[in-house]
Amino acid sequence: MADAFWCLVEDDRQGTPKRVMAEVLGEAARLGGPVEAVWLTDRASEEGLRHLAEWGASRIWLCEHPALAPYRGEVWVPVLAELVQRETPRALFGPVTSRQRECLARLAARLGVGLAADCVALARDGDRLVATRPVYAGKVLAKVTWARPPWIATLRPNVFRPAEAQAGRTAPVERPAVTVPEGRLRFVERREEVSTGLPELTEAEIVLSGGRGMKGPENYVLLEELARVLPNCAVGASRAAVDAGWRPHRFQIGQTGRTISPKLYMGFGVSGAIQHLAGMRTSKVIVAVNKDPEAPIFKIADYGIVADLFEVVPALTEEFKRLLERS
Amino acid sequence: MKILVAVKQVPDTATQVKIASDPRTIDTTGITWIVSPYDEFAVEEALRIRERRGAGEVVAVTLGPERAKEALRSCLAMGCDRAIHLNDPAWAEADTLATARALAAVVEREAPALVLCGRQAIDDDMGAVPAQLAELLGWPCLSWIMEESVDADGTVVRAARQVEGGLEVFEVPLPAVLTCQKGLNEPRYPTLKGIMGAKKKEIRDVKAADLGVGATAPELTLLTLEPLPPRPPGRIIQGDVQTAVKELVRALREEAKVI
């Protein structure tokens, strides 16, 4: 539909959209809609389509083709460009994920329009859309706007209020005829990370982060034990801990690692260097546990405990267990 | 094999950033400028490819004002062979697309087999230029690579990109654009010899007119820069560990309502 707000689906590669899509669809609705989902995949499940409708998509554009997985920019972008040119949506939003960051940048170049990446707020201002995005290590907020539609943006996960699922809502599924190019990137293999059984850093609602105060790689098991007690909780690390070789780089929170925005961030033995703050300062609630009362992280923490983390973490695990078993 | 590395000069992370009175720019007095950290991984990887192959040329390119020459100087000191400086007031308001267009014009003239970039610049964190450059060139692009190897005849690179939950390995026919990040390598420090040698290496100034790239109105316009709103003051929870932990858990449930 012309002038629709399109939301590009991020899925779990098994045919189900990720929960972050509730946030993207919810924000598109808040901006006025009409809200439509665009899904490029090798397989879409009925359940996945239902989720999109329940989260507010009034129409679902589904391109199902084996060449669309795994994601390759040179294959996705011509398909999306063809759809956009035909249907002329007003906006195209997606969550900040590894592939959508690349895909939507590439699409903007193909269409010759602007892109705002990693937005933390969106607002209508008359006929235009104004996006707010953190710059300079999150120390400054930039307000930007587009010269023309479609307004293309990626939205930081966990920042926008998710749409509430309306059970029973349905939406028509369009399967548009599009040309899917072959692409020159040849997929060789996927190597799964050794699973900790905990969620992805960028998707978790609670993140525990261990810094230099963890003293060694063997002690992260303490944080993992606490994480297993809490719902949707991941464990990350500071640059100091990653550079010391205690944790693989994929766990690094901060400027040269991942940017997160959970509803609860808890730093243990993390000093709070600027480059770490750059990756977590939009967290809703920040807790800091550090022996050093002068640690900079206390300056941005909502709650702080000045104590030895090796005493605090096991006590927290026990206390949360008690609380969550009760409720 | 010729490799082009695109870099950006940015304020050092630890630098105090003050918004100028316009308020669309930052006050640059007293700022320490560095090569964006991700770009150093790209420079390092380019040098390693050249060293592994025993031949080739690594060309550093940047778009920025006169001061950005220092960033190119650092790349030359690390070991790049020469540098190109897109240095023209016409690019003062360049958005990612305008930057990608200028870089694409350079790539078309230089015809490298490979373009390496950092995953994103740490000043505006947009992370868009490499993918946009690939699109304008019609080249494949692989983002956030953690390892790569170029085949013997220099026509295909096998690279692993980081995605949620794992790595995806692809064979990428050259020419292509790859974006580099932490974990790929450990960037070298320039040696004294490298720093001295860099002074004799070529940095060519290029104007918009040289590339036939005219100034166009930006597609994304910066309206204002605003300081981050201060967080509400926090609270240090006092008492022995057991008491403090009990109070923290209570506060997270009853005040903050996040558990």
Separation of the first and last Cα atoms of chain B? 56 Å
Shape estimate of chain B: globular
Gyration radius of chain B (Cα, Å) is 22 Å
Whole-number average pLDDT of chain A? 96
Q: Please state the oligomeric state of the protein chains shown.
A: heterodimer
State which percent range the strand residues of chain B make up: 25-35%
Uncertain residue segments of chain B: none
Counting helices, strands and paired strands, the structural category of chain A is alpha/beta
Low-confidence stretches of chain A: none
Elements of chain A, N to C (H/E): EHEHEHEHEEEEEEEEHEHEHEEH
Instruction: Please estimate the helix content of chain A.
Output: 25-40%
Structure description:
- The complex is a heterodimer of chains A (327) and B (259).
- Chain A is an alpha/beta fold and 327 residues long.
- In chain A, 26% of the residues lie in helices and 26% in strands.
- Chain A has 8 helices and 16 strands.
- Chain A has a 7-stranded parallel beta sheet with strand order 5-9-4-1-2-3-10, with helices on both faces. In chain A, strands 13-12-14-15-16 form a 5-stranded parallel beta sheet. Chain A has a 3-stranded antiparallel beta sheet with strand order 6-7-8, with no helix packed on it.
- The longest helix of chain A has 18 residues.
- The model of chain A has no long low-confidence stretch (mean pLDDT 96).
- Chain B is an alpha/beta fold.
- Chain B has a 9-stranded mixed beta sheet with strand order 11-10-9-12-8-1-6-7-13, with helices on both faces. A two-stranded antiparallel sheet of chain B has the order 2-5. Chain B has a two-stranded antiparallel sheet with strand order 3-4.
- In chain B, strand 3 and strand 4 form a beta hairpin.
- In chain B, helix 2 crosses helix 5 and helix 3 packs across helix 4.
- The model of chain B has no long low-confidence stretch (mean pLDDT 96).
- Classes of the chains: A alpha/beta (327), B alpha/beta (259).
